[in-house]
Structures are given as structure tokens and as C-alpha cells.
Amino acid sequence: xxxxxxxxxxxxxxxxxxxxxxxxxxxxxxxxxxxxxxxxxxxxxxxxxxxxxxxxxxxxxxxxxxxxxxxxxxxxxxxxxxxxxxxxxxxxxxxxxxxxxxxxxxxxxxxxxxxxxxxxxxxxxxxxxxxxxxxxxxxxxxxxxxxxxxxxxxxxxxxxxxxxxxxxxxxxxxxxxxxxxxxxxxxxxxxxxxxxxxxxxxxxxxxxxxxxxxxxxxxxxxxxxxxxxxxxxxxxxxxxxxxxxxxxxxxxxxxxxxxx
Length: 260
Fold this sequence. Notes:
By secondary structure, the chain is α/β, with parallel strands linked by helices. It has ten helices and eleven strands.
């Protein structure tokens, strides 16, 4: 196998490491990174715009079928196993990496009876990724992220397990613009809160176009955001439990949101 890259100073390797570690660099270049066979395969299947596929010698021998996929204009480079371990963000890397172009910002196409989740101020990458994955599994029509963690951080991307390529996702950090957009499209908004006086999710209907706001893991939704929603909803809990993990709560809400 010829032209195996071994140096960490290779321009593509340096770019990969910058993108992996810095949101600023991701925004500057309009690129993000992927690691692992499954997510790279999903990216190829969903026709994501991969600029580079980076694969170790060992992975090229083991998972060579990936190299036979329709990679279009993707540049393939082979690196040493040692260099692969150096740039990996996981302890037991599969030796398969990619650089992907961030899609151009676009509006969600709001459907008449669409179901949407708004992640407002959510900061944990694992929670964000899990919610996106659950939304994909349950058939939620789209995710809106506002003031939340970076969608294109490696931890979020990894946690989605490929669902990031199959889910409509809008980033809108201006709350006024967000509420204006939802109102223009006739979306009923619900604020998920911890409050016994709020409507329980099992006692209300979700007819028409609906969006549920999920707030920060520690502080929930800001009061002013909750007040701007059409209604406030809550998950009833037994005993002394008064809160759930954000991803777990979102999963329950999405189940109720999409079951009818």
C-alpha cells in the first residue's frame, strides 16, 4: 500500500484535529468530523458531502468495502495505525475517520400535522445526540436547536449514531425569530416543565402542528420562554422523584407526541 501518511503535520491531519477540538474552527471552515465505520457508512448512504475519508492501514484491510462505495469527490487518504490512534477520540478506534461539510442553513419545511422538538439551552452533547436519535426512531418531523450545544461537536455527532444525517435539524438561536417562525406556521407550542399545576402529557391532545420545548438539564426552560409557549406540560411522577434526565424526558414526550 503506497503513500501511507505517518506524520501528524500532514495538512489534512492537522485540519482534522482542529475541527475535532474547536467549534470556532468548525464554523470557520464549515466542516465537521466523523469517526467510526457505522457513522461514516451512514454519511455515505445519506449522500452527505464528505470532503475526505481517512482510513488506517488496518482498517483498509478489514473494512475495504467502504473504499468501494460511491465516494464521488471524496479524497481518500490512508494513514498509519499509530497516527490513527493519535487522532482518535475513542479509546478503541476502528481507524475510520471523515471530514464532512456542514449543510447550508435552511428552514424546516413545517408540515400541517408535523411534530417537532425544540432543544432550548440544552448543553450536554450526549443528551442532544440521544434526543436526535430517538426523534429519528419515533418519526419526529424535525428538531430545532436554540442556544444549545454545538450540533457538530464530535460527541453530539457520535451520540446520534447516524441519525444526524436522517433528521431535519434547524439551528435558530434568536428566540424572537424562533417564536415568530413557529407562529407564522401555525405551530402549537408546549413548554415541558416540572410543575404539578401544568397539564400532564397523558391528559392533553397533540392535534395539529405541534412543537415541544425541552430546556436546560439543570435549570429547565427560562420562565420567559415558558410563558411565550401556548401551554405548559409536565410528566407526572410518583413518590419523591421530581425530575428526569433531559433525554429520558424528551423520549417520553416524543412518544406521546407521535403516537396519534
